[in-house]
Amino acid sequence: MKFQILGPLHAETGGVPVVPSAAKARQILALLALCPGQLVPVTTLREELWGPVPPRSARTTFQTYILRLRRILASALGGPDGPARARRLLATGHGGYLLRVAEEDVDAFAFRRAAQAGHAAFANGDSELASQLSRQALALWRGPALVDVRAGSVLRVHAAGLEESRLLVTERLIDAELRLGRHRELLAELVELTERHPSNERLYAQAMMAFYRSGRQSAALDLYRRLRRRLIEELGLEPAPQLQRLHQAMLSVDPRLDTAAQGGRPTSTFDLYAA
Description:
The protein is mostly helical and 275 residues long. The chain contains twelve helices and six strands. It starts with a strand and ends in a 16-residue tail after the last helix.
């Protein structure tokens, strides 16, 4: 059975889709898929569906959702032993339920493996491999995590964690490609990313560097001014010291800015001028 969580929820077995249409049944299936092979307590599942104070009918209604999920699975699995296989797949444990699938069958875990390998490659100084692995990880995404699932408090935490990991992989990818001298190719992507994340200082540092190395020093400095104005107006904060030092280096045309991509210890663009 295969699950896709990085975008619209999709699940299939033998090529047959098994995602229910009912909103709460989709929540249950998504949460179980995020914990493959692990027992998820009934209390956690109910909190996801109804919050900390479930209705009186929660127990009966919850059992109805489990039965419906098993019927969908049994139909997809087919054959006279379909119901029994569905019960083994969506199993009852002590105080909870578990989905008997492997991490390899869930795209979120494939993303995490590729992301971790990409981070390791960057730390080892292999920017080309880091770039390839990071793009491989990001290619698994088809939109925001669980974009078509009405998430409760538990799923929101999982989705937020996945989105944060996605952003970190994006930042690592850009750091790797800046080290490979691909600053011009990154400009359009960085403009879009800074628009989507208007207070992300790491992305702004990368965009500043890409513009600077493309011979557009004024555009790089303008990015800094825009970010500084936003941070002061919205948060009452100055940019981080690393970013301030990067700005000063650009004002003074520090020659290290043009040579950082050629070698040296693997360092994120944001931390290039760390104390």
